[in-house]
Write a structure and sequence with these properties.
- The protein is elongated, with a radius of gyration of 24 Å.
- It has helices at about 10-20, 20-35, 45-55, 60-70, 75, 105-115, 125-140, 160-170, 195-200, 225-230, 240-250, 255, 265-270, 275-285, 320-325, 330-335, 350-360, and strands spanning about 1-5, 40-45, 85-90, 95-100, 100-105, 120, 145-150, 150-155, 175-180, 210, 265, 310, 365.
- It is α/β, with parallel strands linked by helices.
- About 45% of the residues lie in helices and about 15% in strands.
- The strands form 4 sheets. A 5-stranded mixed sheet has the order 2-1-3-5-4.
- It contains 17 helices and 13 strands.
């Protein structure tokens, strides 16, 4: 995260350097090390940096970090205009508060809890990894490839995610971003899935945020041109072409379909309420799907694969895993132009929003850049 020292903190820092207690001084040392370790970017005005550089109460390493920040201040200050969210230290208050995209972070809170590497909490590690890659795309497309994403990936284990979220963000006071599936099965459904609802109930003091996907799952937000490369054929065409055809016949299809396992007529008929109406309408709209179940009196219940009427074919349970493997291939992961292979895509809106958010929490310096 970008953490900014406003100009009006100069007097406070001067006082700390000259007569502040060791405990009070700790807030500055922790922020300096957060920058030096590459976990966050701490933006300190040159005049305050010079005060730190001349203060013998800091170690040689800490004074050196302040000098590096001073020399790169003009370059790094531009990040305030690029990042969706950033932090700003303040000299009053007891806990961080988010207002209009800015986290106000009390220095007393930093002294007490430190500045952890940002924790990215998702239902499983593939969700964490794909979110990380969306953030990498944001850096690359924003001409920030000289920087990096520094995140501790934490798996919530599905239904246990809210407990992990609370333990990391509130109980342990770690900087945290939790991203979960909405598990919404059709556009008319406003109710979120159990995991998302449980995460929404998490509350307490700390520097954390919850993000919920617009569509059903992470798979629904993979750029379609990326899926083209992973699954060359879907309903006898490229997935991006098939999706365009399906969405023209039934809008929002790609956001709420269970792309991993597909859907058959028998499964749709076993649904209820608006969910049943939505997916039966899909079946009626798609030209490859028969309007009626072909097995009169069909007793298929658990073995849905026995149903021959395909509404849409599965893209496979390994879709997300395969996407991660593709994006982190040795040749692609280090290429600033990687995203030109699959962006823009017709469905890339949430991918970009996800990338912006994750990058804002995880942005840091590459140690070898000397920034």
């Amino acid at each position: 995260m970008l953490i900014v020292f406003p100009e009006d903190t100069e007097h406070f820092v001067n006082t700390l350097c000259s007569s502040g207690s060791v405990e009070k001084l700790r807030c500055l040392t922790k922020l300096l090390h957060a920058h030096g370790d590459g976990n966050h970017i701490v933006l300190i005005p040159p005049s305050i940096c010079r005060t730190i550089e001349s203060c013998t109460r800091f170690s040689e390493e800490q004074r050196g970090i302040a000098k590096k920040i001073r020399l790169k201040f003009s370059e790094l200050s531009q990040l305030q205009n690029i990042l969706q969210i950033y932090g700003k230290v303040c000299t009053n208050g007891a806990e961080p508060r988010l207002h209009s995209g800015v986290w106000n972070i009390p220095l007393d809170w930093v002294a007490q809890h430190g500045v952890s590497q940002a924790h990215l909490i998702c239902e499983d590690l593939y969700d964490c990894q794909i979110s990380h890659e969306a953030a990498r795309d944001f850096l690359n497309t924003s001409d920030l490839s000289r920087l990096k994403i520094s995140l501790d990936h934490t798996s919530g284990g599905g239904g246990n995610t809210h407990r992990v979220f609370k333990a990391e963000a509130i109980d342990a006071s770690k900087i945290s971003l939790c991203v979960v599936d909405s598990d919404r099965t059709h556009p008319g459904l406003s109710t979120l899935g159990a995991t998302a609802q449980s995460c929404l109930s998490v509350s307490g003091t700390g520097l954390y945020e919850l993000m919920i996907s617009d569509g059903r799952e992470f798979e629904n937000h993979l750029p379609l041109r990326l899926i083209d490369k992973l699954r060359p054929s879907w309903h006898a065409d490229r997935p991006s072409v098939t999706q365009a055809k399906f969405s023209a016949l039934h809008p929002c299809f790609e956001l709420f379909a269970d792309l991993k396992v597909g859907l058959r007529r028998r499964e749709a008929e076993s649904m209820s309420g608006e969910c049943k109406s939505y997916w039966e309408a899909c079946a009626d709209a798609f030209p490859h799907s028969n309007n009626k179940c072909c097995l009169t009196g069909c007793s298929v219940t658990k073995k849905e694969d026995a149903c021959k009427q395909v509404i849409f074919e599965p893209l496979g349970r390994t879709l997300l895993k395969d996407a991660v493997a593709y994006l982190t291939d040795d040749k692609r992961i280090s290429s600033p132009k990687r995203s030109t292979e699959y962006l823009p895509s017709p469905n890339d809106a949430f991918w970009k929003v996800l990338g912006q958010k994750v990058a804002a929490y995880g942005i840091g310096i590459k140690i070898n850049t000397g920034i």
